[in-house]
Amino acid sequence: MTDRATYVTLVGLRERGWTDAMVRDLLGQPDVQGRDPRRWSIAPVRLYLLARVEAVERTPEFGQCAAASGTRSSAAGAGAERRRRAVLAAIRAEPIEVPRLPAAELERRAVRHRHLLGARGPGGVVAGALVRWQVSYLRHALSRYDTLLDGLYGATGRAEAERLLRTRLYEAIAKAYPVLARECRRRIEAER
């Protein structure tokens, strides 16, 4: 049995500022390797002696590697920020065209869309449900705009871009169908 206080995991090393390349080059093989009995995972648990880690952290080689990785990570962060700004600008600039349908046709398509999604409910339409269904149908009809998010991965502004895109789509629906504006505003507020 290993004492967790005297060992550091790979995640713990990353929290201390280590990169995978630094671990490979400066620490080499883990001191203990095996399966974590608390959870099932294909990846083995790798543990490094804390004393050995701290000794390597005091060496000049570690300082040089850490400085070099900091430069690379800040350059990568700047690239990610540029991509984020470009995607947000594209979302703001993209004209959104909402399909214009007669009220009866929009209702029919919204109900059909709801049933295609497998939704089951009471026999009659509950007050306000049809409006929600219409907004959902139109939002689905505008899903082609989701391709504007391509190029954003992970936490690099993707959540912000998704919120901006959904807000723009709901605003466009509200503008095209003023009767649906209240539901669109409710959804925009729910996003915040």
Keywords summarizing the entry:
192 residues; mainly alpha; three-stranded antiparallel beta sheet; 59% helix; elongated
Short description:
The protein is mainly α and 192 residues long. It is built from 8 helices and 3 strands.
Question: Topology of this structure?
Answer:
Blueprint: E1 7-9, H1 10-15, H2 20-27, E2 32-34, E3 45-49, H3 50-57, H4 60-93, H5 103-116, H6 129-141, H7 158-176, H8 181-191
Antiparallel strand pairs: 1-3, 2-3
Question: Could you explain the architecture of this structure?
Answer:
The structure is a single chain. The chain has about 190 residues and is mostly helical. The protein folds into 2 domains: about 5-60; about 95-190, no CATH class. Helices cover about 60% and strands about 5% of the residues. It contains 8 helices and 3 strands, in the order βααββαααααα. The chain has helices at about 10-15, 20-25, 50-55, 60-95, 105-115, 130-140, 160-175, 180-190; strands at about 5-10, 30-35, 45-50. The protein has a 3-stranded antiparallel sheet. Helix 4 runs parallel beside helix 7 (about 160-175), helix 5 crosses helix 6 (about 130-140) and helix 7 runs antiparallel to helix 8 (about 180-190). The two termini are about 50 Å apart. The model has no long low-confidence stretch (mean pLDDT about 80).
